User: Fold this.
Amino acid sequence: MLLTFAGEQYMRNLEAQGKTPAEVTALTAAWVAQGRGDILTKWVWQLPLSSFNVFREGNPQPLAPYYYDWIAHPNYDAFWAKMDVETRYEDVKVPTLNIGWWYDIFQIGTVRNFQSIRSDGGTSRLAKARSS
Assistant:
């Protein structure tokens, strides 16, 4: 997470504070370097996950406060159900981009969503009705 989206979000937070482009670049590079050092020395050993405060920090806004919502719901419940596209394929009426990787733990769901949106999505239903 640190090396994917977090650096960009950190940059946006610094820009929102009015930092110059040079300051944003320097501060972000230092933050990422610190994170790379901390990831295997401090963070990997920190349990429970709810005590991991890195994503709560940020000024003027936290970096990823939703992370704590995720870990507050370790099992499928109403929180996850409201985001579950598999129960609402017919509501998908816009193009989607499904991305998966070779060792992606979600690759089965990625393929299943692609196939099901294509066959059961709102636009496929309309296309079938028009061709009948």
Q: What stands out?
A: The chain has a mean pLDDT of 82. The helical segments are 2-16, 21-41, 66-72, 78-81, 107-120, 122-131.
